[in-house]
What does this fold into?
Amino acid sequence: MKLFVSGRQAWVSIGVTLAGTLLFALLPLLLSPYGVRVGQLFVLAAGLAVAWTVLGGFSGYWSFGNAAFVGTGAFTAALLQLALPGWPAGSAFMVALVAAMLLNGLLALAIAWPILRLRGIYFAIAMLGVSQVCFELVSNIDSLRGALGVNLMDIVPRGVRPERFYYWALLLATLVIVLVAIAVRHSKLGYGLLAIREDEDTARMLGVPTTRYKMIAFVISAMLTAMMGVIYAHNLGYITANSVYRGDFNLNVIVYSLLGGMGTIIGPIIGAGIMTYVTQVLLGDLLDTHMFITGLLIAVLVLAAPNGLYGIYDNYRLRMRRRKQETQR
Amino acid sequence: MTLQTLVDGLVLGGLFSLSAVGFSLLFGVLGVVNLAHGAFVLIGGYAAWTLLDRFGIDPLLALPLIMLGMFCLGYAFQRTVIQWATKRASLLASMLLTFGFALMIRNALVLIYSPDFKSVTPAYAFDSLSFGEVTVGLTRVAALVVSVVLLALLAAMLRYTSLGRTIRATAQQEQAAALCGVNIRHVFALTAGVSAAFAGAAGVAIGLVMPFSPPDETLWTINAFVVVTLGGIGSPAGALVGGLILGVINTATAQLVGAAFPNAMMFLLLVLMLVVRPAGLLGNSFKGSR
It folds into this structure.
């Protein structure tokens, strides 16, 4: 039987992920409720960023509209729960989660056919358009209740502090996302996507089914993003179109990847950690100049480390290796 | 659809065109998507507001001054910041960089001018012209005239002057232009300067017609995106056509479908256009569109 992933590197990645998740799962026991809330933001950001990476990082198709899936996932779940009154919270949540993921997968499949034919900047713009259309439709069609808002069921079990419960829920979802991303990265699909990023025409000429691979990656990315959206919506408890179709979701996921390292899985996680720490903890009190400093940070980042922190590490590693070879000679 | 709706749509469309043409030029020639474009537009608007409020200078008289100032700003922006990013990273990274600048400018405008709405109201702001059953405010007429005249000037400049020829040559074949003795970096910076100058002019015209506030920068950037996609990249005529279509569709949707739907319609159109004809109605196959 052929294993889903192969190679030592994949298993190392999985091991590191599991160990890291365990470590993060224990954190709430040490942190204050405020600390746990910052932790939630970090885990949410990391999950969304890795889900984005499955398409954007691996294949180089930068989506500027992933908030479409966050929002549509959240609203699918919310409206479904509204239609299922009297169900126990746990099963209503599961049904909503599965339905939201399926629906977003279908949505991605439907828009993939026209939009994934566009390349580079045009794909980015089109996705921005898709997220705007979704936002406008949900907020303007009365039966979708985007302007009015929807309450979601309380799914926190008795005896668990809500902030801890959602931290763990988001962490679990992020774990799933990272594992899927690792599986994709080390499978044939992943290598195909990397080939598409380097040179799509050549990849196609060499027999990579580019269209199918891009579609699969897009659908996976959308479903994972929707999963995050559903949990995030429950965390909020009450959602409007404005609170889930957030423009900053669209851009932050890209910023995280750029900061950490584009096309890697650890990159966006590190990026999310740094950005969350800087914006929430270091700049938490500077409300007036918060946006200015964030902008400055992004600008400095692009100028100083265009390939992210992982790029700096990669350069260092290459230089070390070259030096070693020279001394051996 | 009444004639009044059509005229209102055309006025709005003129503003869309003027605000998008600089974006289009920069995208077409350099391949850079300037997400700070809307912020540049607002800088123009706030400059006009300041000159009128503090020094009593009429916005139409201040227009050349503002355009000159914005030209210098755009030139410097390209030579220092964008050039560095495009050389060291990718074009997509330069997009992120300009997004960072958009955030900074927006925040700075909030700090300087407060987040309240401002509008540029010269003495003639409440006069209007009537043509039969159609009534148009004098400032709206001024805004439309400014848009059309400036777009025509830009088109003529690109078509007939040596600078225009250099810019077009650079857009088509960077290396070949360099071989013919064109100083590419200078031309890029001049293009960025022209782009910013037109953004500033658009800001003045917008200020005459409607109130604006710092968060509007996103709106004007996105509008520029849509106009450019509709009309085609790198051509003033494309920006004019795209802008006018968008303006008319905007007011018509607001009247016929519902006041909440112009944006949804606009983006639906954007996505459709990208699918059917990514190069736009009058598109050149310049850098960004290839």
User: Anything to note?
Assistant: Strands of chain A lie at 150-151, 238-239.
